[in-house]
Amino acid sequence: MSTIFGIPPQALFGQLLLGLINGSFYALLSLGLAVIFGMLNVINFAHGALYMLGAFVAWLLLTMAGIGYWWALLLAPLVVGAFGVVLEKTLLSRLYKLDHLYGLLLTFGLALIVEGAFRHFYGVSGQPYPIPDLLRGGQNLGFMFLPNYRGWVVVASLVVCLATWYAIERTKLGAYLRAATENPVLVQAFGINVPLMITATYGFGVALAGLAGVLAAPIYQVSPLMGSNLIIVVFAVVVIGGMGSILGAVLTGYGLGLLEGLTKVFYPEASNIVVFVIMAVVLLIKPAGLFGRER
Amino acid sequence: MATEIQAVRRDTAAPARPAMPGLLALAVLLLVLVAAPYVLYPVFVMKVLCFALFACAFNLLIGFAGLLSFGHAAFFGGAAYITAHTVKVWGLPPELGILLGTAFSATLGLAFGALAIRRQGIYFAMITLALSQMVFFMALQLKFTGGEDGIQAVPRGHLFGLIDLSQPMAMYYTVLAVFLFGFVVIWRTVHSPFGQVLKAIRENEPRAISLGYRTDHYKLMAFVLSAALAGLAGGTKAIVFQLATLTDVQWQMSGAVVLMTLLGGIGTLFGPVVGAALVVTLENYLAASNLPVPVVIGVIFVACVLLFRRGIVGEIAARLGGKRP
After folding, report:
1. In a mutagenesis test of the B interface, which of A89, A99, A252 is the best target, namely the one with the most B β-carbons within 10 Å?
2. How many helices and strands in chain A, by DSSP H and E?
3. Searching chain A, which residue's CA lies closest to the CA of residue B68?
4. B271 or A1, which is more confident?
5. Do B262 and A119 touch (CB under 8 A)?
6. pLDDT tens-digit profile of B232-254?
7. pLDDT computed for residue B15 by the predictor
8. C-alpha of A207 from chain center
9. A222 pLDDT higher than 50
């Protein structure tokens, strides 16, 4: 078995792995978007910028304070989450009574500010971030070579996605959250602090983006522009999956990452647009998205 | 979704006929534009006019049909590429090139619109953004668009084989004519029965449906018209600046046109013109300073959304007692 469909297996599996990595980031980001959208009815355009912020916090911790990857994995999401809480409290919360499109426009402006500021200070070139010592090297799986760090990213993002799913669908706090998504007024009448939950949800959603940023730092270079093109693909992922279900967002993320990887093998020219083409097809067949419901 | 945007829109809603203040404002605008190239740098005013038409086309959709497209750069930039290519490589005269660019954008608008109107609100914005990103990648990869370089040194040529457009004043008044044509089309559309139906859909779509209007058809027609006019602006821009580049199809361009319209006043006829003039002026001014442009633009965005959602013209109109200029 030297080739599969005329493609050497190393190339095929290599691209599939790369697709799985990309899919991990799509999943983490679209999960955050879906959680935020469910609670706030806001599409967080700043998500890509906050993903970039997470990577930059990790890089700054390393270069300025010598704090390594593992601490950054904890600290960067906290910093990004705290930043998100401030944004929600001071800016976003003023718009809940208005048309939801204003939330989109506000977060778009925020994304421009955050990205513009980093571009002003750090330029457009990427900063390298070393792979932590523990995860250097790789495994020879027989049919392909698996770098340890990439395996770690896939596993870590899967665990985080599943944990989030469990927390929202299976715990008491998650039940409150889902109830508040359906009917915030009634839930508040039961004595649950809904505004606090909204703030916490936004903080958590953007912390996921920050976490994705740290995970991405050693794979892609840390650059101010790393989030802006990614977020548009993630928007398409969200349209394809529909934002009604947590698991749906995660599955769509991984699935599209893999599909993109496959496209890179068989028809590389189309790999940039395959997600958008799939979005168009899904809109024709099932406008609400694969896992979505009309709202 | 009983929200404030509807209230804001209602008190800036267009009267059924162009009222006197509106015609007066149009006359003033016309006078200013005819005299402008003698006072200001003509290329600068032409840039303002192209973006003003672009913003007016975008505003037709958001302001009068309530659809926020975040992908209008695809129509603007797409037409710019088609015009630049047909004029430079095929050797077509400029008016035909612009016409082909506009036709391309209208066709693209038909395809994108048919997909995007299947969802509403936030999804509509995300879908248009994603589809326009597809156009961006195509512009990056296709052969004829020239990748990172774009299409440069597009000849301005002779309008109708007679008027030499390399003369700045000839070019300027051609652009002015194109702009006025687009503006009048939008004015007529807004004040036509078709425009009234669009406003009904914006305010309450289920009710418009229950009155027997096939709202999807109206939305699609508005989308195609808006895309075509955005293409007209883009094609003209390609002739004026003799170039079509990736900047024209990038999502930042879609964002810029949203800002122009928001700043000037969503749902007002003159707002996008004012907004475009301000944003282009600001960008020119910032390019000379070392302030980071996106940050300033972002701050204005946030300030507009939080502080004056009616935009400049909308605010003025509200102060003057609900009548639009």
Report:
1. A99
2. 11, 2
3. A101
4. B271
5. no
6. 999 999 999 999 999 899 988 99
7. 46
8. 10
9. yes
As a whole number of angstroms, the distance between CA A122 and CA A49 comes to: 14
Q: Nearest chain A Cα to B114, which residue?
A: A284
Residues A254, A160 contacting (CB under 8 angstroms):
no
DSSP state of B159: E
Q: What is the pLDDT of residue B4?
A: 39
| CA pair distance B262, B242, nearest whole angstrom | 29
Q: Do B125 and A111 touch (CB under 8 A)?
A: no
All residues of chain B having their beta carbon less than 8 Å from the beta carbon of residue A120 are 292, 295
Q: Where are the alpha helices (DSSP H) in chain B?
A: 4-11, 20-39, 42-64, 73-88, 94-116, 121-141, 168-191, 193-203, 205-210, 215-241, 251-264, 271-288, 293-306, 311-319
Tell me the mean pLDDT in the region A152-181.
Answer: 91
What average pLDDT does the structure give for chain B? 87
Q: What percent of chain A stands above pLDDT 90? A: 50
Is CATH 1.10.10 correct for A9-126+144-285?
no
Q: What is the DSSP letter of A145?
A: E
Question: How many alpha carbons lie under 13 Å from residue B80 in its C-beta half-sphere?
Answer: 34
Task: Give CA–CA dist A235/A227, Å, rounded.
Answer: 12
Please name the residues between 11 and 70 in chain A that touch chain B, using a CB distance below 8 Å.
Answer: 37, 43
Residue range A64-118, pLDDT digits in tens: 988 889 999 999 999 999 999 999 999 998 888 888 888 999 999 999 999 999 9
Residue at B317: amino acid letter = A
Question: Among residues B229, B252, B62, B71, which one has the least CA distance to residue A276?
Answer: B71
pLDDT at B153: 83
Task: Say which residues have a Cβ less than 8 Å from residue A160's Cβ, sequence separation at least 6.
Answer: A28, A208, A211
Is the model's pLDDT at B223 over the cut of 70? yes
Query: Which CATH fold topology does B4-26+42-319 show?
Result: ABC transporter involved in vitamin B12 uptake, BtuC (1.10.3470)
What's the per-residue H, E or C state across A55-121?
HHHHHHHHHHHCCCHHHHHHHHHHHHHHHHHHHHHHCHHHHCCCCHHHHHHHHHHHHHHHHHHHHHH
Phi, psi of A223 (to 5 degrees): -135, 150
A-chain residues near B126 (CB < 8 A): 43, 235-236, 238-239
Q: Domain locations in chain A?
A: 9-126+144-285
Closest chain B C-alpha to A31 CA, distance in angstroms: 16
- CA–CA dist A180, B29 (Å, integer): 51
pLDDT single digits (tens) A28-70: 999 999 889 888 888 899 999 999 999 999 999 999 988 889 9
Question: Is the pLDDT reported for residue A158 higher than 90?
Answer: yes
ipTM of the complex: 0.87
Q: In angstroms, rounded to a whole number, what is the distance separating the alpha carbons of residues B94 and B81?
A: 13
In this model, does residue B24 exceed pLDDT 90?
A: no
Secondary structure (3-state) at B97 = helix
Q: Do B122 and A95 touch (CB under 8 A)?
A: no
Question: Looking at chain A from residue 109 to 168, which residues have their Cβ under 8 Å from any Cβ of chain B?
Answer: 109-117, 119-120
Give φ, ψ of B163 to 5 degrees: -90, 125
Tokens of A55: 């990577």
Q: Is A236 on the interface with B (CB under 8 A)?
A: yes
